[in-house]
Design the sequence.
């Protein structure tokens, strides 16, 4: 994995790592069925806490992007699955791009857009826009 | 490793002290014939006044070889220089920054403060003992060279008297080293105390038969052949008390 | 059964000449965690560490390492037998050489690991014959780490391990720590005022300010619990007295009211709804924000 997490970016490190894995699958750097680095070696390489790697792997498994096999390690999900998911991600990206363009057209700034998304994802957003 | 570290800390002082004491001991023996030649001159000197009294006393002592050794070396060089080296050996502890090392590193080792202090004290005392005995034993060894004999038992006993009495100043310096963090203050204060005691002893010469320096030079043994057990015990007790004080001081300290 | 808590302090207090360095500091570090001890200069980090290692005595309160009392001389020796320590100034014996101090330290630890010693000497490029006073700060840090790692310790206590180091050496040091911890079952307790490095390698954090721990917990947990409620009003923002628990700090700037919460953002939102804000949103916060806001809470 040739990236260095940025602890100061505001994006949790485990999310950065998840993004890197998905990006790797998309670009073909990680092929379906290929083994991912072990949790400890990866933590050492990236100089982050092993729990952070573990969390990223768990979330990726939860999303179905990778499989965690007991005793064997982490593997990119077999053929169809991973491709399907990256397709899902691609589709998602299209939707997001459209939404963002539309918000921008309404004069919503990028900062506000980012916050709207994050807040909604955090599940607590109760935006009451009186002026709407 | 604590022994080795203590040795590293005190090694130079010890070796210099040992060399100096051995040189003065050898010097005293080898100079004897020359001094004997000058002895008759003492009678021609004006013997009134304090200086005259001292010259007279010196001449009296030199009538015997044993007296010469006691008067010239034991009472002077051994006692004076020896006290200085005792203080030097006692200044600076492994747990103070004076030793040029870091107290924090030593304190992070799994050794109790008592053990660290104890080993430092033990090293210093061994060195002081060697500093006392080896030069003293040099005298019976070299004396035949000038045609005289000096009893080994005298050398040993004087060496031991010096050791026990000088240990008091060593212990004082160690105690001061736990209180002050540098090398110089314990040294200067302990030397100051030694000088003060010496002056007091000198002034009270007529009235008292006690005195740490009197004990150190083994005067009672020299004059009467009786070993000053009480004085030696008292000195040992004083040293023990001060060293105990050092352990208490170091136990309470925050670094 | 090993104690689940590697380090535990209860209401630790320490005064130096009337000035209180620690004011009831309570801390728990579970075994096996990498815990960052974050605080400003003078907050009490080094004092706490010194007390844990028996170098200073607490005025009151309790400190335990591996379940053993830190203030009792015999148990303190046992604690140090199982702990590796690197002081803030990387204190070592300046007059010795690298090889000499390695031999000196090894003599104290029956469980010394010569293979680790060899590995780190090579990895850190430390020449055995070099005098310690001739080493750069980075090399001193690495040497101190070598001495701490090679003794087979269960706990590593590091006081500002990367202070004064350039980014390259900092990364090397952090990597050495993560790498070593990965292959041994150990706990790491390191103090720092570099939030980024705590974010990077720690899984627990304790924020200390003014001699007390003000925030403590698993990093993941803190990131989930803490958030900022941001309210915009039509005119100047009010300054409500909020009764919901978990309000860390409130700030007003013109028409915006910002509330940093340590938990229960929902309730705070409910409470503030009656104030009729024009918009209300909940925003996640970074460790840096948590730190800056909680240590300034007293201002």
Sequence:
């Amino acid at each position: 994995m040739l990236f260095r997490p940025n602890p100061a970016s505001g994006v949790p490190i485990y999310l950065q790592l998840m993004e890197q894995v998905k990006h790797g699958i998309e670009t073909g750097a990680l092929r379906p069925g290929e083994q991912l680095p072990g949790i400890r070696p990866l933590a050492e390489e990236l100089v982050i806490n092993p729990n952070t790697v573990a969390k990223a792997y768990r979330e990726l498994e939860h999303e179905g992007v990778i499989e965690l096999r007991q005793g064997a390690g982490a593997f990119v999900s077999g053929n169809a699955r991973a491709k399907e998911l990256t397709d899902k991600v691609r589709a998602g990206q299209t939707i997001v791009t459209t939404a963002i363009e539309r918000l921008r057209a309404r004069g919503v700034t990028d900062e506000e857009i980012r916050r709207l998304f994050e807040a909604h994802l955090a599940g607590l957003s109760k935006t009451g826009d009186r002026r709407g | 490793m604590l022994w080795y570290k203590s040795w590293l800390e005190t090694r130079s002082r010890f070796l210099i002290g040992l060399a100096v004491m051995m040189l003065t001991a050898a010097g005293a023996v080898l100079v004897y014939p020359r001094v004997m030649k000058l002895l008759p001159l003492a009678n021609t000197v004006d013997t009134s006044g304090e200086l005259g009294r001292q010259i007279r006393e010196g001449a009296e002592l030199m009538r015997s070889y044993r007296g010469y050794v006691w008067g010239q070396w034991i009472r002077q060089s051994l006692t004076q220089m020896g006290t200085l080296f005792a203080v030097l050996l006692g200044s600076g502890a492994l747990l103070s920054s004076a030793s040029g090392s870091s107290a924090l590193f030593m304190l992070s080792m799994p050794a109790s403060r008592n053990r660290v202090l104890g080993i430092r004290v033990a090293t210093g005392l061994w060195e002081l003992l060697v500093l006392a005995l080896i030069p003293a034993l040099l005298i019976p060894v070299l004396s035949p060279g000038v045609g005289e004999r000096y009893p080994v038992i005298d050398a040993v006993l004087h060496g031991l008297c010096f050791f026990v009495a000088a240990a008091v100043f060593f212990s004082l310096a160690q105690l001061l080293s736990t209180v002050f963090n540098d090398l110089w203050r314990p040294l200067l204060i302990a030397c100051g105390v030694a000088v003060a005691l010496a002056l007091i002893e000198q002034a009270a010469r007529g009235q008292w038969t006690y005195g740490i320096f009197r004990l150190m030079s083994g005067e009672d043994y020299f004059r009467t052949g009786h070993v000053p057990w009480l004085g030696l015990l008292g000195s040992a007790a004083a040293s023990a008390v001060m060293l105990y004080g050092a352990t208490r001081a170091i136990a309470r300290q925050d670094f | 059964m090993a104690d689940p808590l590697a380090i535990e302090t209860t209401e630790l207090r320490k005064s130096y000449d009337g000035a209180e360095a620690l004011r009831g500091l309570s801390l728990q570090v579970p075994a096996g965690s990498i815990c960052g001890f974050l605080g400003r200069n003078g907050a009490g980090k080094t004092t706490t560490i010194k007390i844990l290692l028996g170098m200073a005595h607490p005025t009151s309160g309790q400190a335990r390492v591996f379940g053993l009392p830190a203030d009792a001389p015999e148990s303190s020796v046992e604690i140090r037998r199982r702990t590796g320590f690197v002081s803030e100034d990387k204190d070592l014996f300046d007059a010795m050489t690298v090889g000499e101090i390695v031999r000196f330290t090894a003599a104290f630890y029956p469980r010394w690991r010569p293979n680790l010693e060899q590995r780190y000497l090579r990895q850190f490029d430390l020449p055995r014959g070099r005098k310690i006073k001739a080493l750069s700060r980075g090399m001193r840090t690495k040497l101190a780490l070598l001495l701490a790692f090679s003794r087979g310790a269960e706990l590593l206590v590091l006081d500002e391990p990367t202070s004064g180091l350039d980014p390259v050496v900092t990364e090397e040091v952090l990597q050495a720590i993560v790498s070593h911890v990965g292959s041994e079952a150990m706990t790491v307790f390191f103090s720092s005022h570099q939030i980024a490095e705590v974010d990077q390698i720690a899984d627990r954090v304790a924020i200390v300010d003014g001699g007390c721990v003000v925030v403590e917990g698993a990093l993941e947990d803190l990131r989930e619990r803490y958030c900022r409620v941001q309210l915009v009003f039509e005119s100047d923002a009010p300054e409500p007295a909020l009764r919901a628990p978990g309000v860390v700090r409130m700030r007003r700037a013109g028409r915006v009211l910002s509330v940093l919460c340590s938990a229960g953002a929902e309730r705070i939102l409910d409470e503030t709804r009656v104030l009729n804000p024009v918009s209300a949103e909940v925003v996640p916060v970074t460790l840096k924000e948590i730190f800056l806001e909680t240590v300034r809470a007293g201002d």
Notes: Chain C has two domains: 5-219, 226-295. Residues 233 and 283 of chain C are 17 Å apart (CA to CA).
